[in-house]
Amino acid sequence: MENDDEETHVTVLQLKMKQKHIILITQKDGTATQDRTEQIYRLLKPGYRITILDTYKFIRKRMTFLLCSNPNLVFVYGLKNAQFRLKKSHYPIIEAMKLRADALVHDILSLKPDCVICGVEEDMMTLHHPLNDALKIYDLPTPFADEVNYGGTQPSTIIHELERIEKTTLVKSHFFCANWMTYTKFLEKKYRVRNSIRAPSGCETAKRYARFKGNPEIAFVGNLDGYWTNLPLLQNLCKISNFPINIYGPKRRPHIKLPYKGYLKKHSHLADYQFGLITITNDPLRKIGFSAKHLLYVSYGLPVLCPIWRQDKTLEPATIYYNKHNFNERVRKYCTETLWREKHEAAMRLARQMPWRKTLRPLVKRIDEYFQSTTE
User: Fold this and answer.
1) What is the secondary structure of 260-303 as a DSSP string?
2) How many CA atoms lie within 13 A of 349 on its CB side?
3) What integer pLDDT is reported at residue 366 of this predicted model?
4) Per the domain annotation, does 360 fall within a domain?
């Protein structure tokens, strides 16, 4: 009888958990943010109801409505945005974040969520609100205030305000996690917060892997918009490289002369290459940072070419460090089959050690535990 009661209790608990509603705030823009959200969705869907709010499209529609209904925001945001477009002022990033939050909160409350997971830095202020007393998790790609700071597009007064907003977001969230362990540790130290979850990004499951080829080809995958892409380095490498470099990204920038091949719809195409390329800026944040493309390359057994100023012990076995002066020399060294296979096999081992279902398990477990404690 005790066993029957226990099984009944588990079944009732599972039914109650299934009724819990989780909202994922993301941007379906073809970048790593979308990839991570899709993995979180896949792992949470068996136990919960999931709604995805794509702010890439949603915000434009809602912000227009808010601007028309709020005279103060019309004046402040409209004036600053006009000045920005005339290149006489900075982009009104704080006003834009407030507008985005107001737009999202309105729709989130109508959906009556039990949990809100925000994976977009510009939407972090949404988590400053109670949101129907929902469990709030900030799943940040990058420490935003530092990213804007090193981008050099905003004055120090705006950076300080962004830091205040970022800290408030971490404090008002039940938990936060970042795309890589180094970012989590950085935020813990900077803001003295201890509500983190170690749930870094992971690797895809590949059906085929890269193969050795005497005349290797190099793939670069990523958005070309962010300063951190380090376009000067990428352009220089494309110019001096003795080996073909093909570039894939969500959208083309016609004024930049690069061997652009379009959007990489199928990641499995990476198995046709022999190296994956990263070009990252040499600033304090990116030195300790993370590029989602690193694990994407590793997933398909590609040795990864990474600037020497970013070194990571976890990723090092599959990585080849270079600078703009020795790039061809470093690639040429690993064109020998023995050395290439060493890095190739290290990449496949790393991929097996870091599948998404394993790296995101701490996040799923924390959500399960939270709802179990409030449901029983």
Assistant:
1) B----S-GGGGGG-SEEE-----SHHHHT---HHHHHHHHTT--
2) 12
3) 97
4) yes
Closest CA to 243 of 279, 274, 200: 274
> Which residues touch 74 (CB under 8 Å, ≥6 apart)?
67, 68
In this structure, are 346 and 364 located in the same domain? no
Question: Residue 206: inside a domain, yes or no?
Answer: no
- Rounded mean pLDDT of 170-192? 97
pLDDT digits (tens, 9 = 90+) for 291-327: 999 999 999 999 999 999 999 999 999 999 999 999 9
- Decide: 44 and 22 in contact? Cβ < 8 Å: yes
Provide the token pair at 251. Answer: 């959208």
Residue 9 scores a pLDDT above 50: no
Q: Using the 8-state DSSP alphabet, how is residue 82 labeled?
A: H
Contact yes or no for 197/175 (Cβ under 8 A): yes
CA pair distance 106, 103, nearest whole angstrom: 6
- What pLDDT is attached to residue 17? 64
Q: Are residues 278 and 367 in the same domain?
A: no
CA atoms of 176 and 137, how far apart (whole Å) = 5
Q: What is the residue range of 50's domain?
A: 2-201+356-375
Structural domain contains residue 143: yes
Q: How many domains does the chain have?
A: 2
When pLDDT is averaged across residues 264-290 and rounded to a whole number, the result is 94
Inside any domain, residue 209: no
Query: Of 43-52, 65-74, 171-180, which range is least confident?
Result: 65-74
User: Per DSSP, what are the bridge partners of residue 245?
Assistant: 218
- Sequence-distant (≥ 6) Cβ neighbours of residue 7 within 8 angstroms: none
Q: Is 337 helix (H, G, I), strand (E, B) or coil?
A: helix
Task: Find the CATH number of the domain harbouring 274.
Answer: 3.40.50.2000
**Stretch 150-163: mean pLDDT:** 94
Q: Which of 64-78, 190-204, 219-233, 347-361 has the lowest mean pLDDT?
A: 64-78
| SS3 assignment, position 162 | helix
Q: Whole-angstrom Cα distance, residue 144 to residue 138?
A: 12
| Same domain assignment for residues 360 and 348 | no
Cα 54 from chain centroid (whole Å)? 14
- For residues 23 and 159, membership in a common domain is answered with yes
Lowest mean pLDDT among 101-105, 187-191, 302-306: 101-105
